[in-house]
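tool_call: predict_structure(chain=1)
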Amino acid sequence: MPGFPGRIAHLRTRETTRRISVADSTAAPLITVLGASGMLGTALTRELATQPVRLRLVGRRPSTPPPDCRAEIEVREADLTTGEHLADAVADADSVVHLVAHIAGPGTWRVADGDRVAERVNVGLVHDVIEAIRAQRRSRPPVVAFAGSVSQAGHSAASADGTGPDLPLTGYDRHKLEAEQALESATREGLVRGITLRLATLFSQGSDPIALDSGVVAVMMRRAFAGKPLTMWHDGTVKRDMLCVDDAARAFVAALEHPDRLAGEHWTIGTGQATSIFDLFSTIAKVVSSHTKLPPVPVLSVPPAEHSLATDLVDFVATPARFEQACGWTPRESLIGSLDRTAAAVAAELGDSRR
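tool_result:
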């Protein structure tokens, strides 16, 4: 399919801002990305922008499309918790990628039980997507790909392949599981072709603005550059599967390319490699040291913070073999190389701020 050469037009209304690349054809599939301005949404946009598709990027903040796009791109800035904006965002879309999550406090996953605002965002928006599609009376069910988490499985998530029982330990994980189940129910009903990708611990590698990353790697990287010790809420033996956001973005592209193989199920996405928190923090300290030319900052064990959760003491390591066999995806980015690129990005950011 040919690319999308075209001009750029700008439209502004009271509630949305749009940047549209006007293409020669409207026959290409339309993909809506909800939460496009976040870390994963930005990485996914880079991947999809190289393809002959139409992209509708929707977020709380305006997205910045990459240069030299092959795709036709429309950018919307909208509050998706209002039904009007949500229904309009998914209208006529062949595929919807749902990356929206409630962000508050130290991280997206730290949701108190009974938090109605978080529940409205994490669960309610999935129901809104389903009901908007139901009202549109589609002749063919659109693909809806949802970002879940390996932590949804709770204690059974150690070396999880997604086939064991789900015993979520936190409000965030219960929200994710409820949203996933709603999507699977809508798939059985024939309304959508729902796919949930349960993602391992994400981190960026400097491909996009480092400010988008509020995860543990970015936080500890900034502490190390500031000369502060890297603190653990345990003895450091807790293990995580560290998944580069660029690999996660490619997993969503693979899911959109193989919807009929994947629809109606959840799939575990990760590297399958267990990294202890102590080893991760020690490596971050050494990588930063190579950029600052100063001794590595110490890695210390400290009492848990008040906002710590049960999942902070549980190993979460993905087993992605099922997904790899279903659509051919494999992770490409190494942890060490990615950490070095992240450090370079943080160093550049700090240099710019000082200048």
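agent: The first strand starts at residue 7 and ends at 12. Proceeding to next step.
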